């Protein structure tokens, strides 16, 4: 049996190798990966000095970039970056002086490459052309080059290409003869010739970096002189056929007469399907092109592609005559992505987009992955979080990303590689106007057959005469290619609407209005009513989390996380390095809570087309925007899993409309249960059930709703839940869970219940709102003082705390508030015995935390830790407190900058926390660790903070400039 197994394995290997050899023989090529001669052209003199006619003096390995092989310049304070910097404080803050010293440069704005170079560089390789290549068409294939390439064969220039989205292919047939030949490539990564915008993710240091080099496949490829210039497949599901448009070029001196044939076979599904071959006569004159359109019928077994069943076909196209036989394989899916009213439709079924923004984050290489396996890993991770959509912000990924997305089942929105806002504008006749057309046409030709390529945008957040320009752009594409849907550009809420756009990716209708209360009843219905096309929320979230310093060790490639290193050391300088992991987890839990509530608000809004998060993963630039549940490596940070996240972000999500989350036990908890469903089929005869449990997982109530069929839609009504709370006799956290029975779909919400308590000040405690003489006397005599310092803080007055955390990051937005990324709570302290809480600020903290003052403890002992500690922005790392305890003189004190006291009767959580703190003060457990002087505490209410933020620059992001996003044509 073993021998038989070995024989089968041996036979399989022989068959595999044989097929590989056949393919190689049919499409011969010379792979050019490996060592190349190389030279930097700093003075831009290589062309005039004919460097292509001599041996270059250095060496490099391709595929790769200059920085990857330490070619270029060391990073200094004078490095001329490609990317906007709006916070110059790094260059001036005294506390950061050590990071500006030679040998210790730490750039905070983005990841730091090993080397930096913007300009011309030359790459050169000798190849030997076989004799049997005579009569073949020979193409130099550069899968992705950055940015402009010029090619010479020996001393003859072949041409020049500029593309950020597609391969640079050069026809070298007329330049190559059998024998040894020298190929020289000049690559220029400056953006001044065709400026797509220095912050475009196709070029900027904020994300992939403005690298110089060639990545992916590099080869000399041979083809028959009569060859397929283009093959495009247009599915027609209604009529069970595909329209195949074939363009053939004849580069020979002979007329071609023969036939063309097409057939398709599925290759990645449990069910298989194969069409019959369609054959047609075909001819093309010498040195010319011709095209033909054929219909390919499918039978009853036709397989369609969508996110649930991503079935794919290989189309085999053959061109045959007596002298020539050539063929091409094209992967495609039978799918139709259309719009009906304000809904996206996949194969006639409504679909809501649940997306994230991919910004070209590749911290090991500094350039995008060019293997299917790497992209599958990324896209499978994205899909595991319940998402079905990816927007590529101002860049287009290589072909391997589309191949992987087709297999995984995701709807993609690649974009023209432009953010024409900072230093460049559209519609004014600048080079970028035509370049966007060229690039998007290259994208459609190169990737247009991939089923996942469902949407197209011209880029991100433009300036200029944008309405006219983008209307014409959308009209051009609607007329040209019906396989996907088109918008103008992805924009924020203050940009003008593009009337002709088939769908909108737009801000303005997003976010959580938690300035007055917390609830999950409201939706965005009123705001989206004025839009008659699908509305996709632009860049939702952007909720910051504290840095994960364990991530630093992952940077083993071309980038170093010098920004993280600086933030870590600054945290240590502020005596809090031991709290880094706690800050990460506490801020992370709040971040997830915010994403959950914003996503649910969209999912309960009828007719909302979808959302694009910014993001599932961190953004490494623009000051360092740590907005993701995943890091820049698409790996989890430890505070939420894909399984947990997909409870509230999935194709089916139970929802609960809840008026508030903190209750008195003489009330009833009421919730209206709803459902979001965007499935392959309706949920038929679905039974939805609910349970309410306490923290001991004891079931307090349960119920279910009658079986019902739920079609695809947002905010479908299910029924009501009511639970009287009079059985709750002590302060408790309860949990409502809603399930779709017989499935894995479930979601839950915590809420808090407090009994009636007296918050009269106990005789043993002196309650005061100022640190007056009586308070000092009580402390001197060994008594207890509760100081409610709300509204009295001076040291820390500049720090603004909302319940919602920092948006994007405080560096990019010039320290625009809020400045706090949540709170770390000493939840194991007896101070919270009567106030159920975890270590992070959950919803019950809202009326305590939101807009409360914080205290800056910059002069307190290094080991001092408050009971409730707001987590400052990592650009400042101030040691903050909301509530702290200490020994003073012979007495003990609790100081609160939150409004806690007997006067606060209308805020249940504040009232309950004050009750719990009083009980704690009257217990033996009240034994603060630190001894402080009265003067040190008094200083909080007298002296301002010693370190105050200053951006040292007048420039700012467009979002902060008045009328910056309107039609500026000057």
Could you outline the blueprint of secondary structure elements for this entry?
Elements: H1 2-26, E1 29-31, E2 34-41, E3 58-62, E4 64-65, E5 112-113, E6 120-129, E7 137-146, E8 148-153, E9 156-162, E10 168-171, E11 179-188, E12 213-223, E13 226-236, E14 241-250, E15 256-266, E16 278-284, E17 288-297, E18 313-320, E19 325-332, E20 337-340, E21 343-346, E22 349-351, E23 353-358, H2 372-384, E24 389-392, H3 399-408, E25 411-413, H4 431-447, E26 455-456, H5 466-480, E27 485-486, E28 504-506, H6 525-528, E29 535-541, E30 559-560, H7 562-573, H8 580-603, E31 610-614, H9 642-645, E32 652-658, E33 662-664, E34 668-677, E35 683-686, E36 688-693, E37 699-704, E38 708-710, E39 713-724, E40 732-740, E41 746-754, E42 765-768, H10 773-780, E43 784-788, E44 820-825, H11 846-849, E45 855-856, E46 868-872, E47 880-881, E48 883-888, E49 891-896, H12 908-921, E50 931-932, H13 934-939
Parallel strand pairs: 23-24, 23-31, 24-25, 26-27, 28-29, 29-31, 33-41, 42-43, 43-49, 48-50
Antiparallel strand pairs: 1-12, 2-3, 2-6, 4-12, 5-30, 6-11, 7-10, 7-12, 8-9, 8-11, 13-14, 14-17, 15-16, 15-18, 18-19, 20-21, 21-22, 32-34, 34-39, 35-38, 36-37, 36-40, 40-41, 44-46, 45-47, 48-49
Helix pairs in contact: 2-3
